[in-house]
User: Fold this.
Amino acid sequence: MYQKLTEKTIKALEGIVGEENLIIKPDDMEPYAHDEVAELHHLPEAVARVHSSSEVSAILKLAQKELFPVTPRGAGKGLSGGAVPLQGGLVLSLEKMDRTVEIDKENLMVSVEPGMITGNLQREVETQGLFYPPDPASLDSCSIGGNIAENAGGPRAIKYGVTKDYVCGLEVVLPDGTITRLGGKTVKNVTGYNLIQLLVGSEGTLAVVTGILLRLLPLPREHVDLLIPFNDFSQAARSVAEIIKNRIVPAALEFMGQDSVRAVEKLLEKEVPFDDADAQLLITLDGNDRRTINDDYEHIGEICLNNGALDVLVAENTATRERLWHARKMIIEALQNLSPQRIMDTMDVVVPRSRLPELLAGIKEVSRNEGLEIISFGHAGDGNVHVNIIKNIDEAVWRDKTPKTVERIYRLALSLGGTITGEHGVGLTRKRFLSSALDQCQIDLMKKIKKDFDPQNILNPGKIFP
Ligand SMILES: Cc1cc2nc3c(=O)[nH]c(=O)nc-3n(C[C@H](O)[C@H](O)[C@H](O)COP(=O)(O)OP(=O)(O)OC[C@H]3O[C@@H](n4cnc5c(N)ncnc54)[C@H](O)[C@@H]3O)c2cc1C
Assistant:
């Protein structure tokens, strides 16, 4: 159905973005052929690095006329294959649209372009005493546009929510090239359906995001981090339940098993605190009132020690806090490093917080039964677990066992009232499981929405739907 890019189309694309922003040499296109999912690779026919919404609009109008597929791309740090140009065609890279348009201190909002690196956005607003809370572990390399497209989350979701909770306005280009602006600086807006929330998390299949207006918070003045080791994960799980029951809501509440900690040590070639503990909780408290934070951390310490914690390490200065978080942020890379080919299958299941112990016990049982090394870590505070099957076995065994194992873990999460992805998206890697997570009526509605936005299916085809 799609047409290959002809010489004439390439010339037209050069006319839109300039010769220097159109990549057509296979070697130069290589970085755009994959995201962070190992083994998923597909070269596009060209890559266009755009600088404005009018360039995006002209490209999409051309794609409609010439019938070539267009895959939007932020920084290519996705973990579901969303930016992989499965059908060839054009990769539309937003990486050059990376400016801050305005920091509005009166309305507590920031307006940015989609290619901006999330960590840069956070640091920039922090210089003004403002706070953009969503904090994916990849924040120093992923783009805010990619975060919108995936509805990215992070450790701070437990207290502050995820990307969707901060988006007040979007400028988008629809697949037919129409540029439209949704929402704005008002705090309230119930005029019609909430199209912004439909587009957040739509994985680049409905529209290309070219402008973003985000709500900000005042930057909390005080922070404390606690690292708490346990001899047994069930003690950590009991502590988490009790912390929440006591109405303490930390800014982050993460868990790591000994296997993750050892993997980080191997990667960094240095010791990480409490590496002989079975499990660790990494907890952040923030706010403006030092006394409340101190009370809360003492209370958390008591709860954990009563549940068998081996120690409570308190980090109050920035350097120590960053050191503790560095190990947590390196886990994905460290686990990739355990496989000779740097390959692992990463799942992103989420269950109600209270069912987390059952999920983790079930995953351990699957790992034992299948004889595969499965390492889990993640967000104890919101029930979102990253489950990684490490490819350190024979290719034939891997091919035989991995699909069954993945299916068993998804079925387990669903049986506990959870779902198959909490923050990484469906993309390519999870689309075959969509019908186990959603009923047919919902899938049909979603397909109709896709068809209304994009009747010729030129925008990011082959994603989400099996
Ligand atoms: C080490 C590591 C840690 C990670 N930790 C987290 C985490 O804690 N939390 C989390 O949520 N994710 C995490 N991720 C996953 C990833 O970083 C996020 O999904 C992020 O949002 C991807 O952003 P990106 O700019 O790299 O997007 P890309 O990979 O380039 O694209 C992702 C999807 O968004 C679409 N897209 C990108 N830009 C646009 C746009 N402007 N308009 C329309 N569609 C667009 C693409 O088509 C694709 O479908 C992690 C990844 C890595 C490698």
Q: What stands out?
A: The chain has a mean pLDDT of 96. The CA atoms of residues 95 and 386 lie 27 Å apart.
